[in-house]
Amino acid sequence: xxxxxxxxxxxxxxxxxxxxxxxxxxxxxxxxxxxxxxxxxxxxxxxxxxxxxxxxxxxxxxxxxxxxxxxxxxxxxxxxxxxxxxxxxxxxxxxxxxxxxxxxxxxxxxxxxxxxxxxxxxxxxxxxxxxxxxxxxxxxxxxxxxxxxxxxxxxxxxxxxxxxxxxxxxxxxxxxxxxxxxxxxxxxxxxxxxxxxxxxxxxxxxxxxxxxxxxxxxxxxxxxxxxxxxxxxxxxxxxxxxxxxxxxxxxxxxxxxxxxxxxxxxxxxxxxxxxxxxxxxxxxxxxxxxxxxxxxxxxxxxxxxxxxxxxxxxxxxxxxxxxxxxxxxxxxxxxxxxxxxxxxxxxxxxxxxxxxxxxxxxxxxxxxxxxxxxxxxxxxxxxxxxxxxxxxxxxxx
Length: 397
Known about the structure:
The protein is of the alpha+beta class. The protein is built from seven helices and 26 strands. The strands form seven sheets. Strands 3, 4, 7, 10, 16, 17, 18, 19 and 20 form a nine-stranded antiparallel beta sheet that branches. Strand 5 and strand 6 (78-80) form a beta hairpin. Helix 2 (24-32) packs across helix 3 and helix 3 (34-40) crosses helix 5 (293-299). The longest helix has 16 residues, at 354-369. The relative contact order is 0.21.
């Protein structure tokens, strides 16, 4: 039994597609078996909502009168990268104001940065634009101060070079002092563990070999429609995998793009991370077309199947650049609130929102079921597709 992207899209257009979330498909396959579920289900929707530091937005301002070639650009005091054209800039999610005390009084609070500016724009809030320039004959203006909103921008789109890690470290701290990291505040002697993944709802874990994902894949991004633009930076498809094909480390990532004017600030949030900096939480949902029984099998992954690497973020671990993985535990264990690891019972806490991931998968399901969202067949799947090897034998019910 096989289906094509176009066959599934025709069913979506006709209102006949069977669309379920990555949570729902687990029970369906258990009840009726892989083969029957593959015949019945056309699309499985996924979702994730977590901190994604390698994010940002391209903005284009209308030309000023007289015209100006902006050199140094600040949005609510946060520097945005120029160096492209007269009124284009890129604001990164982790950028902070130049006068931010940062970690001069450790741990710093990092109350405002690029992720907050992007959230404010999407929410319709006003932002102060300040720009300076050296002036040219064709662009004589040298300074500008103006209040803007998203509606004032000619174009504004998120372009994030690395989002939605396939798997990710869970962080502990083996040292005898508290550390402040992008995985949050980690207490001494492995007193707590933080993790950041939607587990069984996570997009790339439901298509572990990227058979259906690549350039042009249409996705849910920040509450609107987006696309996979390229493989993400640090994409590492050759990370070790288990017999099911699930990576034991970070593995795949995606670069994504989408129109900010379609987005909802509920799914794009600036965050402050004590002692580390600022970032942005982003909501991403990817539809997985059920092309055959194998694709259905992959979407039945559960939290109990997925093993997260436990990494030491203490001074002698992650910061050194040397291997820091102490072992692996399942997401089912992490989500239980406590793990038994290396002879210790350790309390767990998520840095991502499973409730929001579930909401994203349900919204995407609704869009597709209502015929408002068609699948985008990638023009090229993510790297490693040419070396694709099945992840293991699956048995029908």
